Amino acid sequence: MRSYIPGYEMEVPRNLAETLERMAREPGTWKPFAGGTDLMVLLEAGKLPQRKYLSIWKLPELGGVSVTHTHVTLGSLTTYSEIRQHEVLASEFPLLCRAAAETGSVATQNRGTLGGNIANASPAADSPPALLVYDAELELVSSRGTRWTPYHGFWKGYKQIGLREDELIRAIRLPREKSAWTHFYRKVGTRRAQAISKVCFAGAARMESGQIADVRIALGSVAPTVLRAIDTENVLRGEKPASAIVHAARETLAREIAPIDDIRSTARYRLRVAQNLVAEFCEQLTA
Amino acid sequence: MSEASRKIRVRCVINGQAVTLETYPLARLLDVLREQAGLTGTKEGCGEGECGACSIEMDGVLVNSCLVPALQADGTTIRTIEGVADRGHLDAVQQAFLTHGGAQCGICTPGMILAALNLLGRTPQPTTAEIREGLAGNLCRCTGYTKIFESVVEACRFARPSS
Description:
The complex is a heterodimer. Chain A has three domains: 5-55, Uridine Diphospho-n-acetylenolpyruvylglucosamine Reductase, domain 2; 60-175, Uridine Diphospho-n-acetylenolpyruvylglucosamine Reductase, domain 3; 182-286, CO dehydrogenase flavoprotein, C-terminal domain (Enolase-like, domain 1, 2-Layer Sandwich). Helices cover 34% and strands 25% of the residues of chain A. Chain A contains eleven helices and 14 strands. Chain A has helices spanning 16-25, 39-44, 80-85, 87-92, 94-101, 106-111, 114-120, 127-133, 230-236, 243-256, 267-286; strands spanning 9-11, 30-33, 52-55, 65-67, 71-75, 137-142, 145-150, 155-157, 160-161, 168-175, 182-188, 199-208, 211-220, 227-228. In chain A, helix 9 runs antiparallel to helix 10 (243-256) and helix 10 runs antiparallel to helix 11 (267-286). Chain B has a five-stranded mixed β-sheet, sandwiched between helices. In chain B, a hairpin with a 2-residue loop joins strand 1 and strand 2 (17-23). The longest helix of chain B is centred in the last third of the chain and has 14 residues, at 109-122. Chain B has helices at residues 29-36, 92-99, 109-122, 128-134, 146-156; strands spanning 8-14, 17-23, 55-58, 61-64, 77-79.
């Protein structure tokens, strides 16, 4: 059933400082509202328990993509459309651009934000696997100050992240160190556009004379959180991606993920597809 | 449930006309357009951002109006299907939909045309793949998409994105 619209409040703070001050004064009472592509769906379905929002959509302090010699830093309000159009991201962070291109449609990509995708904390979100592969760090701000945290480890459980009630994600920082790596991204859904993932796989590896010198693998929709497949990475690191190692990687991945049956797919299908994707990733490394 | 919020004033320009609408902050822009501005050309399909029937342009950007809270429309410039034809003269995209049978039941058509116009505004000569991607967020249950696709291809031949 639809929500009762007059029961919801939203106000527009003048700037980031005022936003943080209000979030600090009454912790948990006011929550940020960006492009609304997740929250409005919950509102329409009558499943939005939070009643009071601060519209942060236009706050300039949370927007923009900046590039330095060592990092690319994306303001949390960076939309999927902006990600897709950014030259440095396109050339050095293709997994993130693929994730952006495969999230929803043009209209969704114009309103959906990277910070929102992180804060919404869906295990089926498409950008988090790419962010994990790229060793993203998050800048979290509150009226108490700023702290940086690795995105890996930020998830605490199903739909739970290490964001305090008075904190906002201000930016996402990506080190510019994997442009020479081999990148691999596959989102498996019912339809090419608009579908929510059944399995999402992001991987990158640095090859040295046929060996996997370093590797990152992350998956969505196969566990209560988006996860980095550390054990599988360890199986592959230092090895040639030959059939015995690929087999070991498949077996390890099966132990590392915990897919379930739900409205979109089955645990069995997800397990098989995730294993096939790690094999396909390895195959690409030998190409 | 008690009424937590009061109505707010949303000032925006819709199809070239400055308007002030009174509504609740989280009212869907879709409902405000249809029920308060009287612009019922914008349709509701799924109400969850999956079908594109409610597509409009807000500050030149394609959005699903079912997912935009009214408060965030304050200060924006909006174009709906009612603002596409120019004093009775159909836009090339509209004309192409007529000529090529791009509309059947018509529910998806306003959103489909806004998505096509927005694509041509950004990419005046789109490739086949770009047309497919530009329309991928708009579902049609009648046409099988081929005639819609052909309509947009035909409209591109006029190479004149309207503003």
